[in-house]
Write a structure and sequence with these properties.
homodimer; 220 residues; alpha/beta; Arc Repressor Mutant, subunit A; Rossmann fold; two-stranded antiparallel sheet; 41% helix
Chain lengths: 220, 220
Amino acid sequence: MTAYKRHVDPATISDLTIARLSIYLRCVDRLIEVGIDTVSSQELARRFNLNSAQIRKDLAHFGEFGVRGVGYNVSELHRCIVEILGLDSERRLLIVGAGNLGTALCHYSGFSGENFLVVGILDRDSSRISDPTPAGLLVEDSVRLGEIVKQRQVDIGVITTPASSAQSVCDQMVEAGISTILNFAPIRVRAPETVMVKSVDLKIYLEELSFHLTQRNRNR
Amino acid sequence: MTAYKRHVDPATISDLTIARLSIYLRCVDRLIEVGIDTVSSQELARRFNLNSAQIRKDLAHFGEFGVRGVGYNVSELHRCIVEILGLDSERRLLIVGAGNLGTALCHYSGFSGENFLVVGILDRDSSRISDPTPAGLLVEDSVRLGEIVKQRQVDIGVITTPASSAQSVCDQMVEAGISTILNFAPIRVRAPETVMVKSVDLKIYLEELSFHLTQRNRNR
């Protein structure tokens, strides 16, 4: 029996809980691939090296999932996580900064598939404007940001400029009415409290690998 | 009083704990910037929207940190996390795949600064070979992978090829003796158990933003 709350106060849910929901979704995808219908939190934890108490606690924010002693219905759990994360709606992305990273994200499968859709890529450098990206989008002039956000109903702004322009791009995005921003520039950008800014720090992945290298060498 | 264990069994530490240590390190960096010497787990949690019990639990894997009722010495905590993550040693990276993403990572500040150092970028496409990257490295032929790994003492292999070549690049890296791999290709790569492969899924960040967009719209 699943009693699932569609409405929660996002302020009560930590970013880490949301990141774990994304991980659970990938695990559930794999269970579906291999044809498993029901799974307990213990089994889910064991298979994917997670923490079963954490799984139960994370899901409890969103209602009652699963049947005690039986477990979760895999397809129902999948559907609920998709709904919680809003992955049943199209999300339109605008990338600002058409250097290597912006261009790479333009044809990154996770950014242009299923419910996410890159609807534009802008740059202020006139030599890059009209340069077709591998994904077939033309680079447009970033002076048109405000107009493009409205015309194409942009949901998420993606900043891939150098650090020196990131704050001004963020300001322009906020001014244009974008309320969710993904920042790849290596600088903290400031935005009003009503705007959600997520900064990506790829170094975190290297630090995790560094930990394993270190422990392996020390335990030798 | 800090009694900190330099040797732990990495199998007992979850990837999420390590990812959180990276986050704690960034928080501690900021405390140092603003001149704070001592911090309790509660205060650390409050300032950075973390979970204080989780902080204590994560650190407990590595020994006894802080003084009950007083808190952590900030600079000591910083030093210990740096040591735990092995960020006091140089880590040499080899990027394979000199498309937009590989080139972007070549001059991404987190990948080429402090203790991480990109020592080479390879591609099998002869039209890209010798193409200088913005970071000043020349793209070299990926047939030289084995030789370059040994000569330049590569610690971490980074896969930025299309999905179709990722497994064969991974196999070549393992064959050349690389034991830690960061995979950006949108495919699961298989490696022997002794090799640590971390796959980066940038879509997780979009999913987090999608959650906030969804809840905001539903709560309107």
